[in-house]
Write a structure and sequence with these properties.
Blueprint: H1 2-22, E1 28-31, H2 42-57, E2 62-63, E3 70-83, E4 91-103, E5 108-121, H3 124-132, H4 140-159, H5 161-173, H6 177-185, H7 194-226, H8 230-240, H9 250-268, H10 285-298
Helix pairs in contact: 2-3, 5-6, 6-7, 6-10, 7-8, 7-9, 7-10, 8-9
Signal peptide: 1-18
Keywords: Signal
Length: 312
């Protein structure tokens, strides 16, 4: 009995390790619905974006709408549209949805897959939504399509590693540490290039948080020096609470925080609401660096236009 139990536990553990590995490729994709996909009602388009995001995340990929070079894009065409002979009548749609994975910057298509979807609803919009809901992330054809796309993305990084490092180095020379981190942290862990960039990621991450620490400490100090009241304390506290503990100036951050906290206690006879960040021992520097890249992407203009010419 014990032998059977050990065998079962071994297979469960092996399965979990395999699953963890498949979910940690470090590959990222952006769900993108091009303007060419016209005629879809707004609520159905929202549903389509949601389904694309599910296809990405449920297949071991990170969904990154802010700074991903690679995209998952759809094209939707109506194969047939009928009004049912029911009471009340309903709209029946037969859609052809073709999915594409590719390089949205160079316009290189990596993989495509077409799926027919049927939907019925009280009106055309609901029929669209009904059909798109049937776009399953676990469809075997979609699984195979996604795997092919992932292989091509890894091939891209393996083949372009030296150019990636050169571009990051050029940005570093211009003190564009966060943008350089975006480029390097997008390299998948499953690629041979990752071992070549990970040490550089650590260096750039430290430079980024050191600069961030210095800038925020200067800003918070100026606010507090100008007017040492509760409002100034809260304004400075909001800044200090976002500084990473690994920053070179963090000792000075703690010193300023202690001074403000003591003053708040004197002014209001209560503890201050703001807390400094503490070191998260579970977070690797790779994950922390990726967070910096995501934050950088969120602060960039969001009207990104990808190149999908020739995909349809």
């Amino acid at each position: 009995m014990k032998r059977v139990l050990y065998i079962m536990l071994f297979f469960v553990a092996t399965s979990l390790v395999a699953q963890e590995k498949s979910n940690n490729d470090g590959i990222s994709l952006a769900a993108y619905v091009p303007r060419q996909v016209e005629g879809i009602p707004a609520s159905a388009k929202k549903m389509l974006l949601n389904r694309l995001a599910q296809i990405i995340t449920k297949n071991g990929i990170s969904e990154n709408p802010y700074n991903s070079r690679f995209i998952l894009a759809p094209n939707v065409s109506v194969l047939s549209k009928d009004i049912t002979a029911t009471a009340p009548p309903k709209t029946a749609l037969n859609l052809n949805v073709t999915l594409y994975i590719g390089d949205g910057v160079s316009g290189t298509l990596f993989a495509s897959q077409s799926i027919e979807l049927k939907g019925v609803g009280n009106n055309e919009t609901k029929a669209y939504i009904s059909a798109i809901k049937r776009l399953s992330p676990k469809n075997p054809e979609i699984l195979e399509f996604v795997e092919k796309g992932k292989e091509k993305i890894i091939e891209y990084y393996n083949s372009n590693c030296s150019n990636i490092l050169k571009k990051a180095a050029a940005l570093e020379a211009q003190n564009e540490f966060d943008e350089a981190l975006v480029i390097l942290t997008n390299v998948p862990e499953a690629s041979t290039c990752f071992n070549k960039v990970k040490s550089k990621i650590k260096v750039l991450y430290q430079k980024s948080i050191d600069r961030d620490c210095k800038q925020k400490l200067t800003e918070a100090s100026a606010i507090w020096a100008a007017n040492q009241d509760i409002n100034a304390a809260n304004e400075a506290g909001a800044i200090l609470s976002t500084i990473e503990p690994q920053g070179a100036c963090y000792g000075k951050v703690k010193s300023l925080y202690a001074k403000i906290a003591a003053r708040v206690k004197d002014l209001s006879d209560r503890d201050w609401n703001y807390q400094l960040k503490v070191l998260d021992l579970k977070k690797t520097y790779i994950k922390a660096a990726r967070d910096v890249g995501v934050a950088y992407g969120k602060n960039q203009p969001q009207n990104v236009k990808y190149n999908v010419r020739g995909w349809y």
